[in-house]
Amino acid sequence: MTPSIDTINQIIRTRRSIFPPEYTGQDIPRELLETVLENANYAPTHRLTQPWRFTVFRGEGLQKLADYMGDTYRANATPESFSEAKLEGARTKVLKSACVIAIVMDVHPDKVPEWEEVAAVSCAVQNMWLTTTALGIGAYWSSPSNVSALNQFLNLTPSQKCVGLFFMGYHQPKDKPAVRTPIEEKVTWVE
């Protein structure tokens, strides 16, 4: 089966950040989540370190993550910066999602520089995002200010770090044009 360039172009060019307030609350079947994760596993990786790791929160797991995000915000906010709206926003974003995937990077400093692991994990997330787009599932990658606090919550090893959360949910598609400047402004040809 050879995908057509038109299909690939359409998926890449219609991928958008779709945020939890737009999610419908419909459950995402586990089989589709497994497809999303399997496609992530095919990202390019230097020296085959395959540094991506994922923790999937759904069902009651979303409540645990929401509680942790709220508790962490409350514990780290100064009295001057504390906002009840930010506290509820951190919790609600999780609870409005059908699934949230913690994106973890497992570094291998003895094999490759860390930036190469970041690039590989980013490619894995792009594969996830393109797959969700093809499946009609909204998604976006967030790096909350307290992302490093998730390392303990996720029981990560010293060689691992959480690099963000991937929020997912079905949504009512809207025409959201891409905001991009012309590629001609970003390319130099040497022929």
Automatic annotation (TrEMBL):
The keyword Oxidoreductase applies. Keywords: Flavoprotein, FMN, NAD, NADP, Oxidoreductase. Binds 1 FMN per subunit. Its EC number is 1.-.-.-. PANTHER family: NAD(P)H NITROREDUCTASE YDJA-RELATED. Its cofactor is FMN. This is Putative NAD(P)H nitroreductase. Pfam families: Nitroreductase. It comes from the Bacteria. It is an enzyme of class 1 (oxidoreductase). Transmembrane segments: none annotated. GO terms for molecular function: oxidoreductase activity. CDD domains: YdjA-like. FMN binds at residues 15-17, 46, 141-143.
